[in-house]
Amino acid sequence: MMLVCTDPAVDPREFDRVEPVDPWVDEMDGRDVRLYGSELEPPDCARTVRVRDKHAIVTDGPFAETKEQIAGFDVLECADLDEAIEVARRHPMARLGLLEVRPFWPFE
């Protein structure tokens, strides 16, 4: 899984200077590396759900206090972590935000 994160401290005009994501998507789809991906609504649309003492506690906003905001995700199928890092390195958002690459928990 690759989480695409932005930094709210970055001037929004900087995003205009980053190349579009579509060519990256087309290349990774063509390589059969990207299985699925999507942008996410902004963090103010998020709800965090916790259950404590059998009661659901629902709060507005993202689940953690972080500077970065999760803007989207891509499900990748790579041979190994090195390939996943290479794929993430080429994503345009790596220049202004960050991409977290993490394997799925193995099925047993």
TrEMBL record:
Domain of life: Bacteria
Residue intervals of the YCII-related domain: 58-107
UniProt-listed InterPro entries: Dimeric_a/b-barrel (IPR011008), YCII (IPR005545)
SUPFAM superfamilies: Dimeric alpha+beta barrel
Pfam family, one: YCII
Family: Belongs to the YciI family.
Name of the protein this chain belongs to: Transcription initiation protein
Organism of derivation: Trebonia kvetii
Species classification: Bacteria, Bacillati, Actinomycetota, Actinomycetes, Streptosporangiales
